[in-house]
Amino acid sequence: MLAETDVVIVGGGLAGLAAARRLHRAGVPWRLVEAEGRLGGRVATDVLDGHLIDRGFQVLNTAYPRLGTLLDTDQLNLGYFTSGVLVRKGDKLLRLVNPLREPTGGPGTALAGVGSLLDRLRFAALATGCATLPASRLLAAPETTSETALRRAGLSDAIIEELLRPFLSGVFIDRELSTSSHVLAMVLRSFARGRIGLPAEGMAALPRAIAAPLPADLLDLDTPVAEVTPGRVRTQAGDIRCRAVVVAVDPPAAAALLPALATVRMHSYTTYYHSAPEPPLTEPILLVDGDRRELVANTVVLSNAAATYAPAGRHLIATSVVGPTAPPEPTIRAELTRLYGRSTADWTHLTTVAIPEALPAAPPPQGRLRKPVALGEGLFVAGDHRDSPSIQGALTSGWRAAGAVLDELRAG
């Protein structure tokens, strides 16, 4: 069977949905094909024994500029985390918060024993600059790795190893901090400007909300794509003839469909989910390891931020590890006993979610975080590997790709 439309979008993740939304607004005929039986790509939520289990620890930042184009975040009923972190150092838990968001925590942050006072002042200056300077100026700065940028800002080895490496390794899924300093600047900007939260119905609520205005009969699920060529998409259900194709799948799948694309290295991530009868902390705040053991990237009581993540009488803890090797659950449980400073013997291990291709690597040079989306001959590509490796990057790339399609169709 041969179908026809103006634009075929391959992939129903965030990038593909953002592209569909822009094309739909423009009144251009389109169709989206997705290999899986659901939308969302890497953003997904399962339900296990009454707990909401996201496909790896993920959060939503309200400062992402593209979100406001696509939905009202109020509809997600977000539960928010504290704007800061706890750092385990020996027998102490040290609390560092964003004084702009948590004014009463400012004095404690200034006196916290992570790095020196000068370190904390220098980091505050770096974050403030990222929050207040125009994005264009930040992206015009000389580019290096994140670690080099932190050291050039005058930060000591102590604050980098005890706070910033464990925290940022969970953000970039990159313990080496080899991620571009331009990505670092945008991350610090979003953390300083926005709030971090979880949708009451899990992270899968985000792609559902973005897809909600789209006609369901234009979304073909369970439809793997075998081949993409100019003017044609070959699926298991038949061929679709079109004027343009937007390939919005993960980098390995995109490279298989578009051999001209450069190979993108992917970072691996594993999240362990535990259920507990009592929360090891009562605050919705991320806990990182300042003892330089380099095993756990972060751990957090998700249900402290969004109570809906656990059934009544239970609490959900997510613990994430960076890298392709996932330690056994008992090893992680022992680390959690140390990090939280209390027994985990009555915790239940719900599941371990390993994501071998969780996030694209973004070493320098990344330039202005805007890689080309138009490949010629009516072929386009979208995904967070074309912008920043983030939810914002995925949404922006899809929006940009749709804009490039519209320009080409109007010109033709």
Automatic annotation (TrEMBL):
Task: Enumerate the spans annotated as Amine oxidase domain.
Answer: 14-406
On the tree of life, the source organism's domain of life is Bacteria
**Name of the molecule in the record:** FAD-dependent oxidoreductase
* InterPro entries listed in its UniProt record: Amino_oxidase (IPR002937), FAD/NAD-bd_sf (IPR036188)
